[in-house]
Amino acid sequence: MSLRDLAGRLSISHSHLSRSLRGAQGKTIRWQLAGDIAVALRLPRGYFPEYRAGRVAEYLMQHPKAATALFDELKLK
What we know:
The chain is an all-alpha fold. It is about 70% helix and about 0% strand.
């Protein structure tokens, strides 16, 4: 699949996708886009670590008690 094909499946421009994948102009892959790319490539949505990290961060923002428990469990200071 070409970059143009993938961008078309994602309904974004191929130039935006290309810059994001290369990290050009400070662009990064949003976790939601990583999940969409995985699905477009017929992979599980959680295939890419960017998706998993973003999804976990979103969950923890919505569940402060879970965030506190995880913070304490990991001994992050």
